[in-house]
């Protein structure tokens, strides 16, 4: 991210509009929904909006099918998740419903679960300096771990073909 100092931005006079060189408009419909089958389960879909390695940020929409669980995973970054629709929870924590935001800390481990409606969330991963891995997940049967790094999210962002999911019929329909 470029920081620009501008002598015109002073108190007492109207500020001009300044278009930043790294500003970007992203159209959600231009990005594919991708089922995360490579993680060893179905019912989990991502639409990666932006991967910014320099600033250590990944932004994506996340959908989970109704009555589904995401495998146990660990955060190697801070996570902000805003629930757009549906309901979900993990562990013994309270239910996260539409309009709820959760801030998850580095090192946190949990296994999200969805209710009868499934859910959709807007998610921001805030990576640590010098850390390529954002999330680590554990396979529920083999207990093997998989690192989900910046490369992983870039592959999701540019996926096409059979990985692209077009599911209809959910309350969080993304066809």
Compact summary:
The chain is mainly beta. The chain is built from one helix and eleven strands. Strand 10 and strand 11 form a beta hairpin.
How can the largest sheet be summarized?
7 strands, antiparallel
Class based on secondary structure composition and strand pairing: mainly beta
* Topology pattern, helix = H, strand = E: EEEEEEEEEEEH
Full CATH superfamily name: Jelly Rolls
Q: What is the third-level CATH name, the topology?
A: Jelly Rolls
How many H/I helical runs? 1
- Reading off the top of the CATH hierarchy, the class is best stated as Mainly Beta
**Unreliable runs:** 161-175
Shape: globular
Number of domains: 1
Give a description of the structure.
With 175 residues, this protein is mainly beta. It has a single domain, classed as Sandwich (Jelly Rolls). The protein contains 1 helix and 11 strands. Strands 1, 2, 3, 5, 6, 7 and 9 form a 7-stranded antiparallel sheet that branches. Strands 8-4-10-11 form a 4-stranded antiparallel sheet. The longest helix has 8 residues, at 150-157. The two termini are 34 Å apart. Mean pLDDT is 82; it is low at 161-175.
List the main descriptive attributes of the protein structure presented here.
disordered C terminus; 1 helix; 175 residues; seven-stranded antiparallel sheet; Jelly Rolls; mainly beta; four-stranded antiparallel sheet
Topology:
Elements: E1 34-35, E2 44-52, E3 57-64, E4 73-75, E5 78-90, E6 96-97, E7 101-104, E8 109-110, E9 112-126, E10 133-138, E11 145-149, H1 150-157
Antiparallel strand pairs: 1-2, 2-3, 3-9, 4-8, 4-10, 5-6, 5-7, 5-9, 10-11
């Amino acid at each position: 991210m470029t920081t620009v100092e501008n002598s015109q931005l002073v108190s007492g006079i109207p500020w001009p509009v300044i278009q930043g060189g790294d500003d970007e408009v992203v159209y959600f419909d231009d990005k594919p929904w991708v089922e995360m089958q490579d993680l060893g389960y179905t019912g989990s879909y991502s639409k990666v909006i932006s991967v910014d390695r320099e600033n250590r940020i990944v932004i994506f929409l996340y959908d989970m099918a109704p009555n589904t669980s995401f495998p146990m995973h660990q955060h190697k970054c801070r996570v902000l998740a805003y629930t757009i629709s549906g309901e979900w929870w993990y562990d013994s924590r309270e239910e996260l419903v539409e309009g709820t935001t959760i801030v998850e800390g580095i090192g946190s481990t949990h296994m999200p679960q969805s209710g009868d409606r499934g859910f959709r969330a807007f998610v921001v991963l805030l990576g640590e300096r010098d850390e390529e891995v954002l999330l680590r997940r554990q396979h529920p049967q083999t207990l093997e771990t998989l690192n989900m790094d910046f490369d992983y999210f870039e592959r999701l962002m540019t996926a096409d073909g059979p990985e692209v999911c077009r599911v209809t019929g959910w309350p969080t329909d993304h066809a």
